[in-house]
Amino acid sequence: MPRVLVIDDDSTVAEVVAAYLERAGMDVDVAGDGPAGLGLARDHRPDVVLLDLMLPGPDGLEVCRQLRLLRPGLPVIMVTARGEEPDRVLGLQIGADDYVTKPFSPRELVLRVQSLLRRVEHAAGLPGSRVVAPAEVVDGDLVVDRAGHRVRLAGRELTLTTREFDLLSWLVSHPGQVFTRAELMSAVWGWEFGDESTVTVHVRRVREKVEADPARPRRLVTVFGVGYRWDAGAGDDG
Q1: Final residue of a domain: which of 76, 96, 124?
Q2: What's the distance, CA 81 to chain centroid?
Q3: What is the per-residue pLDDT across 59-96, written as a single tens digit (0 to 9) for each?
Q4: What is the mean pLDDT of residues 209-236?
Q5: For the chain, how many structural domains are there in total?
Q6: What is the side-by-side strand order in the sheet with 142-145?
Q7: 29: domain range?
Q8: Do 64 and 141 belong together in one domain?
Q9: 168 and 79 housed in the same domain
Q10: Do residues 181 and 227 lie in contact, with contact meaning Cβ atoms separated by under 8 Å?
Q11: Residue 238, CA atoms < 13 Å, CB-side half-sphere
Q12: pLDDT averaged over the chain?
């Protein structure tokens, strides 16, 4: 049974979210601030964290940074009352895998959590997942180990969030094909709606980790006016 950690100082919101998640068959832990949440993340090892941005004491951004240090691959969904794009982008930049904006539908939030859990299960190659690409994809000095959920570049293991891994894995498995942002949202993360800037942010983060010069990408390239393409072999002589 998947375990979800809810970190939110609004007890009413936390109780409603927990009730919906439990009804969907998940175990739920609730914390009212960052230190308590980090303690639960350390002791109970949740599968997903729902993290409020506006927490007392260390805010959600700082807690997210600490979660990344504690468990680098732990999926985090940022929950925020701020609707402005810079706040959403900042959360994604520090490692959140997804975000929802208050007020939100608890049912939608449950669907987001379930979608993220499916992506993690699929990437890990657990029973019941439908693997549609080789367990390991190699492009020169880049090795994407889908079964082990690991990426190595020139022998060095990279640290990627779940969303970053899913995006990289998809693109490397489909070299030479151009995908729009909407197509990537649907194919990679199973979203039929959402802010397409999410794709832009994750593309930038992946480039920072796999490109020799992220400002002049050779592997994950932009096809202006269309979307993005992975050019296999482009990093061989870089």
Answers
A1: 124
A2: 20
A3: 888 898 888 888 877 888 888 776 555 666 666 666 67
A4: 91
A5: 2
A6: 136-139, 142-145, 150-153, 156-158
A7: 3-124
A8: no
A9: no
A10: yes
A11: 19
A12: 84
* Interstrand relation of 136-139 and 142-145 (parallel, antiparallel or unpaired): antiparallel
Residue 235 within a domain: no
Same domain, 103 and 215: no
How far apart are alpha carbons 31 and 44 in whole angstroms? 12
pTM for the model = 0.57
Quickly tell me which residue has 């039929």 as its tokens: 192
Tell me the CA distances in angstroms from 96 to 2, 48, 82, 110, one per residue in order: 19, 11, 15, 17
Direct distance between the N- and C-terminal alpha carbons of the chain, in angstroms, rounded to an integer: 45
* Torsion 211-215-216-217 (CA) sign: positive
Q: How far is CA 32 from the centre of its chain?
A: 23
Last residue of a domain, one of 124, 146, 171: 124
If DSSP states are collapsed to H, E and C, what string results for the chain?
A: CCEEEEECCCHHHHHHHHHHHHHCCCEEEEECCHHHHHHHHHHHCCCEEEEECCCCCCCHHHHHHHHHHHCCCCCEEEEECCCCHHHHHHHHHCCCCEEEECCCCHHHHHHHHHHHHHHHHHHHCCCCCCCCCCCEEEECCEEEECCCCEEEECCEEECCCHHHHHHHHHHHHCCCCEECHHHHHHHHHCCCCCCCHHHHHHHHHHHHHHCCCCCCCCCEEEECCCEEEECCCCCCCC
Over the stretch 114-160, which tens digit does the pLDDT of each residue have? 877 876 665 554 433 333 445 788 899 999 988 788 899 999 999 99
